[in-house]
Design brief:
The complex is a heterodimer.
Chain A lengths: L6 E3 L7 E7 L4 E7 L2 H18 L5 E7 L4 H16 L11
Parallel strand pairs in A: 3-4
Antiparallel strand pairs in A: 1-2, 2-4
Helix pairs in contact in A: 1-2
Chain B lengths: L3 E5 L4 H13 L7 H4 L4 E7 L2 E9 L2 E7 L8 H16 L5 E5 L4 H6 L3 E5 L4 E5 L4 H6 L8 E6 L6 H13 L3 E5 L9 H11 L6 E5 L21 H21 L1 E7 L5 H13 L5 E5 L3 E2 L2 E2 L2 H9 L12 H9 L1 H9 L8
Parallel strand pairs in B: 4-5, 8-9, 8-11, 9-10, 11-12
Antiparallel strand pairs in B: 1-2, 2-3, 3-4, 5-7, 6-7, 13-14
Helix pairs in contact in B: 7-11, 8-9
The chains are: A alpha+beta, B alpha/beta.
Amino acid sequence: MEIKKTAMDGTLESSDIQITVSKGTDGVQIDLTSDVQERFGEQIKQTIEKVVKDFDVDNVNVKAVDQGALDCVIKARTITALQRALGTSAEPAWEVL
Amino acid sequence: MDAEIREMNLQNPDEFEQWRSFLAGLGIANFTADEVDPLDGTIGLFEGDRLMATGSYSENILKYIGVCHKTSENGVYFNKIVSTLLTILGQQGIFHIFVFTKPQYSASFQHVGFQEIVHSENAAFLETGPTSIKDYLAGIPKVEGVSSAIVMNANPFTLGHRYLVEEAARHSSHVYVFVVSTDKSLFNSQERLEMVKAGTADLENVDVVSGSDYLVSYATFPAYFLKSDTNRVRYQTTIDALIFKERIAPALNITTRYLGTEPHSETTNVYNEVLESVLPPTVQVEIIPRKETNGKIISARDVRLAIKDDRLADLTDLVPPTTATFITEHKVELQARIRKGMKIDGN
């Protein structure tokens, strides 16, 4: 699947994560800002990457600004941002959920 | 107490006064029309009727961010305000967002995903979004060896600009011409970029590139957070010079910057003075005296006045044929923009 436009979901509030996805040319690039980067950075990136893979997106730039979000929040925000970017918000992505 | 975010209407005198006195209490003192009128929207975070935090935006720049920490944990209201502003702008399709702030607040913005482009003693300039200055620099054609650079607004491209580019091209192996992007001029950024490209197409060692959002224009630089308005040009120019010195020049191997003189403009004089004090020794500054025709210096302002007064025959002495052609073809539209109130008497 191809990213059609830049899209964002999530907030900068505590326990949330703000995900912005945009067109990429070099695989899945994740730029993460987080207070818990050292301890959980890899895990957060893996969660995002898994969702991206489930959507079958090959090239995408993801900017993630984390305020201590739980895994399920990271997943939900990434799904919504991707659906907006792919223009498929109206169709539930059952296979990903 | 629960806090609620609402849009604020600064046209409403009561709301304006609440907003103004709140920010004044946080040390922001400038609420002139110059600063306030360009705001596209303002939000406030309220506890009941009490304003506890606020933020505004103007195109892709966040402005007048102010937060009272008395009743909230550090950062909570700040994050909420910035988050809401980014969401509002995102809904309008604006994701690449900038902020000018005091240097001591740079860390707060970095905490919510902004990256600092540069900071000076008085101001910091940050950005967030899917692209950054690194992507901008990566998109500019690279050449072997060192380059020179010229930055121009070219509103429009005159024989004076042409002379400056020729002089730089003659003394350098390669020249980048950066065209300022801000759309506050009679000719829009796309038109100015095209005119400069057309007017220098015969010079083989010249590349014309857009300044994008990274050549800070006087028109977009906010002064509200500075102590006094009188030093505005100096503060803005310092940020501009630092971006050039610390970010653009190293990435493109630029060692010399050419400047033109502007005998009749105090702004340009301050600008040149700041560049001369900030850029060396990283980047050498070469000043080229203004070109004259018939004992008079060539000025883009005279070109704009000639368009306004429909004296297109006068253009021959002022602009290269490429610019003259563009103006002739777009005369009606340009004159319509002037009639609509586009200011043309600046420099």
